[in-house]
Amino acid sequence: MKLKNEKIIKSKPLKGFTLIEVLAYIGVLSIVMVVITSFIIWSVHSTNKIKVIRETLYNARRSMEIMTYEIRKAKNISPTTTSSHLYLENTTTTEFYLCGAALTTLCQRKGEADPIYLTSERVEVKNLEFTQVATSTTTPSIQINLKIDYKNPANRPEFIAQIISTSTVSLRSY
Question: Where in 17-92 does DSSP place strands (E)?
Fold first, then answer.
């Protein structure tokens, strides 16, 4: 006999995820996370590489511009000039040479003043060479060879940068 208020309870299928669905979700999520992480790491390395190249290039360009400017306005090149030390004669003597503890910083000194560092502490000058160039005129010329490396004590590939710059500059004859 059945009562009026009695309800028949039907069993409904349970809702949820099966183990296979959960494993598939975790697998897809893992692949997406690996791709995103790889992209972020690559982006950071690329950004570091660009900063290193920019820093090295800026130091080389700035140093060459300053030396070129000073050579052009000089009245004469001192006979005491060597292949690694340039002496320019003007109202005061201007010198360009390597300084610092390891001789890897480019310095400029005017007269008896303290030297001015032309390169930052993040780069090192590997080669600085001055060569007097013989020309058909009486105006002296100097060839500058400059090689600057980014300091990379850990030898990480994203911190490797090197700029080699060569320029020939003539003194202006007034």
Answer: 76-77, 86-89
